[in-house]
Amino acid sequence: MTLLLVLPVAWMVLTAIRPASGVFYVHRGTEFTLGNFAEALAKPEMKEAFVNSALIATLATVFSLAVTITSGYMLSRFSGAASNLWFGLIYLFRCIPYISWVIPLYLLTQWMGILDTYLGLLLPHIAIHICFFSWIMKGFFDGIEPEAEYAAYIDGCSRWGAFIRIALPMATPGIVALFILSWLYTWNEFLFALILTGSRTTMLTVRMAQFVHETGIEWHLMSATAVMAIGPALIVTLFAQEYVVKGLKI
Amino acid sequence: MLALILPALVILVAFQIVPILIGANASFRSWSLFNPQKTFVGLANYRRILADPLFYGTVLPNTFLFMLASVSGGLLAGLGLATLINRRFRGQRLVRTAILLPLMVPPVVAAIMITWMFNDQFGIANVILEALGLEPVAWLVSRWTSLAIVIGTDIWLWTPWFTLLILAALQTLPVEPHEAARMDGAGPWQVFRNITLPLLRPVLMVCITIRTIDAFRVFDIVWTITKGGPARSTEVFSIYAYKQAFVYLNFDLGAAASMIGAGIIMVVGGVLYKVLSYVVEVSR
Amino acid sequence: MSEQRVTVNRRTFLRTVGGGLALGLGAAAPAGAQQMDLKIGYMPHPIHENSIKWMKVWATEHKVALTLVPTSYEVYVEKMTANLTSRGGQYDVIWHNDDWGQLWGRYLEPVDDVPAIKKMSRFLYEPPFVWEGKDTGVAFVETIGTFFYRTDLLKESEFPRTWDNLVKTCQRLQKDGKVKWGFAGGMKYPHGWFTFFWSIWANGGDLMLPIHERRNEELGRHGWKAAIAEPEAVQAVEFWWDNIKTHKIVPPGQPGYSRDDANAIFMAGDAAITMADTTLYGKFNDPKQSKVAGKISVASFPMGPRAKFKSIAWRDAWAWAIPSHIDPAKKKMAKELLNWINLNREAQVDLWKTTGGFPPNEEVQKELIKTDAVFRKFRAATVESEKIIHGAFYFARWPEFFATGIDHMVKAVTGPRDAIKPTLAEGAKMMSEIAARS
What we know:
The complex is a heterotrimer of chains A (250), B (284) and C (438). In chain A, 76% of the residues lie in helices and 2% in strands. Chain A is built from 12 helices and 2 strands. The longest helix of chain A is centred in the first third of the chain and has 34 residues, at 44-77. Chain A is globular and about 70 Å long. Chain C is 45% helix and 15% strand. The radius of gyration of chain C is 23 Å and the shape is globular. The chains are: A mainly alpha (250), B mainly alpha (284), C alpha/beta (438).
């Protein structure tokens, strides 16, 4: 099963090391090259795109986590009108497809003067993550029995104190999982990147998609770029996983 | 308490609620993308979508089929993988990382690769079939093989997501009940069924509900692999709305279709959430 | 090689007009001390890139900065349309395809005063780029479909002139083991041109009645009638059904092919014949990307049994356009730029040599006819056909109209053969309704 998960990626790696005329029959022929990587990276825009994507992915993840851990906690621990309303809102917005509001979003960011800037891409991403994360975090906090927090109150801890000292550490694996998912999601995100950026803040996925053009698909370059894009993703994942293991030991 | 959600709320209002309201507004107006007249037309756009035989005859059935198959496939695979790798073994880190690989390829690129793998001339899928002595298949010419490819790709894409979250949930579980059960002589399956699964339910419930909603709205991989074809037979609801809004340039009809779809999934998701909550309560 | 051309031109250009230019700039400088910046919205494509290469030459001479904003084809129309309707300032010069003319007409600056347009065929402009009597785009390449074939498999004299012959030729080549497939062409939305559309036109049919009419007033007067259920079109779809299922001269997956799939098959050496835009010539002939480089030539469409002419071809153009809401000074510079590119002989010849796209300046074309044998062959295969038509229609609902048409043709060609006619009739009914909403 793991093999099945890896197969398409392996195929992509294979495509990335075939010359342009060898990508039709990827499984046939023996010409291999590393030139695709160099060719894909040769354009300065590509290096910029790597930096942009990494920057947006990291910032969006950190900011979204900062604002959603608390709201997920709230959804889990407090019942009442405000909490229900918040949950209702999140639910509602999760249901509406991007298609119906991505163009209004484009016009809105244009109107605010932040179209094709980091901020113009970052804030909508955070808005998306907020919905998703508050909800997942609620699930994690739901899974943690609140008894320990009650015990902390009795010991004279404040609500905030109980949250930070008791609930937060217990939810660490969940937070790390979200960190990975959020980072990878933003790193791979396409639709917003496509619509909300122009020449100044292009993201990697958009650059990759530009290997698909009117005269055909440059499989070899697209794959080479995608393979290189796995690098940073892998580093983030490994780093975060390491942290999970450590976090658990504490 | 409000402080807990205030920053989130502000961003949400500006970058999600307002655009959504603009989109919702368009669904009640005559609003073509190239010439936004914006005259109020009431429910006319909704009526036109609901009266379209393609929408209720093909699009909605495809969407539900996709949703059911993709969510259950991804859930089962993710649950299985997470339980299997939630222990110490040699090569553990390698396997864990390998499982996450699909998450590291942009879905659009992955979908393009998959399309190429199922190309009837060049694709590896037909090479394998021929090696097994079977006839090559023109995968993307029939509705059912096309849908199968799309669903398979989606499961492939989302299995790691389930795995990662379930794994994280498994790691937050208390060890005592498991040990107690094992002491009592329960086998691995019984421990999983009677101890692990009930404890996992809060996270599973959220994962299932979120994935159900997202699968209902699936867009990019279907668009990349089939564009809804052949002959609109694999269109799902987001593709339908997208085509109305951006291919046919009827932003009004696209917005109305989006709202109808959102309404349907809201009800379906709500019922599902209630049912799952009930199951969790009962099983306690 | 192309890089070298730029520098050579830059040098010659400087030498000849350098003095006069410096004077002109000196006079203009006090008015706008700040350097002007022109933002070019385009799709990454060899044709655009060639055009931009020459824009850069001009920009350097005129001390204008160019900002390039590439946008994927997938969202090009949406994004540009949103930008134009909201009067956003992201672009000063934009790529304008012939079949978007009626979507954007009202938002574009009239460019009748660009002198280079006088050197081009009026056919390219009317009706696609005309809005309320004014031209709204300056063509930078002609886009014309043609047949490509393998010269190592077929002699020029052997290229089939009729459908019957096409089938027989393909079957012979396949039987002799020379090639896997006789023909491969894009078929699914939005690439119906490379199979369905050319065959309908080559069989004396069209997508609307009266045939070959493209003026909206006339189409309206005749009741916006779609023609895909007329005998010519039905026969064309039956032709493809037979080619796939009976004659087996095209890959069985063809109804699911975009033009990229079909081009890949041709470039991999697995099809003897394909149909594509002439602008693909550069790619097909590039040994780095294509296994058939150096052994391809072009020919005109094989004609169907109901053909009304000896040969037929479509002829359209891509243009650069200027949004009407930008700064007048920028408009003026943009017009100068577009004029310069089309009058610059070297740029026009370079476009043809590196991409296979016809330069729109007819004086340059006349010169190329005299000096370039390949260009002569391309001309003969395309614009010198007996009948020349436009490859699209120019009413606002055209995108929905043609998508519906292709979808029904694909449905017909993948269904049972005797259902072809009713399926197309159903499509024609829907298409007529869509067109009537224009």
